[in-house]
Amino acid sequence: MIQHLPTLSARVLGLISTHTSPRRFREIDFLRGVAIIMMVVYHLLFDLAFFGVAAIDVLGGFWRSFALATATLFIALAGLSLPISYARRKDRETGLSLWLDYGRRGAKIFAFGLLATIATWLFIGDGFIVFGILHLIGTAIILAPFFLRFGRWNLLMGAGIVLAALPLDRVTGPYWLVPLGIHPAVFYSVDYVPLIPWLGVALIGMGAGFLLYPGGKRRFFLPAFNLAGSEIVCAMGRNSLLIYLIHQPVIVALLLAWLALIA
């Protein structure tokens, strides 16, 4: 039984991972690792406030800006990675096969988003995740073959989508428009990342990917950096989806155990 554990672990990680190539850029892994650390910190503070352990205003002020910065970094990096993966597969996949490949990868991320929807609906009820960051990234990957053809022009297209959020800020509408950024007057979700403006952030990242990594190759010089702990941060970046999926259950379980001990 023990000798089969490595194989089993590889299969599990294969189901969770969205990366299909071993050729990775250290700087992207590092930035994604920074984003995952920021996310864990924010969610820890959110849970402390949610369970009444600490009076922290996580929905306003500095921590609100911190959460927005975290989401922006995550989504921009997801967009940045798409031209790189496209450059490595466009010669062997075209047309329908390319759409099917991105559709499969995006649907997997979106499915994890649906699991988060179900889990938060069962656990917290009001405020459950309707269209969160995994739904957004999954949708962006599914739509990638359409936008990849525009290359650097995605910078302008993305900026346009981001700016489109301004006139929609006070627009209300039926519940089925929630993914677009239009929602009923009374609406709250603990993780709400609608297509407008956040698909624009992904497209800005995509346009930057074409500029910085043309043909899937780094076009700029990057000096070697071996900061203390940088390899751990990179490892977290390589496994960001796995950490995203398990960190909240772990934090909540530890908090509940601690609260039970001090009760």
**How many angstroms separate the termini?**
41 Å
* Secondary structure tally: strands: 0
Helix content: 55-70%
Based on secondary structure, the structural category is mainly alpha
> Number of helix segments?
9
H/E topology pattern: HHHHHHHHH
What fraction of the residues are assigned to beta strands by DSSP?
Answer: under 5%
Please give the largest β-sheet.
none
How much is the average pLDDT?
A: 88
* Quaternary structure: single chain
Indicate the overall shape. Answer: globular
Model regions low in confidence, pLDDT < 50 over at least 5 residues: 1-21
Q: Rg, please?
A: 19 Å
Structure description:
By secondary structure, this protein is mainly α. The protein has a domain at 93-207. 66% of the residues lie in helices and 0% in strands. Helix 2 runs parallel beside helix 9. The longest helix has 29 residues, at 95-123. It is globular, with a radius of gyration of 19 Å.
What order do the helices and strands come in, and which of them pair?
Layout: H1 5-16, H2 26-50, H3 61-87, H4 95-123, H5 133-148, H6 154-168, H7 195-212, H8 230-238, H9 240-262
Short key terms for the protein model shown above:
single chain, 263 residues, mainly alpha, 9 helices, 66% helix, transmembrane helix, HGSNAT_cat, Heparan-alpha-glucosaminide N-acetyltransferase catalytic domain-containing protein, membrane
In brief:
The protein has 263 residues and is mainly α.
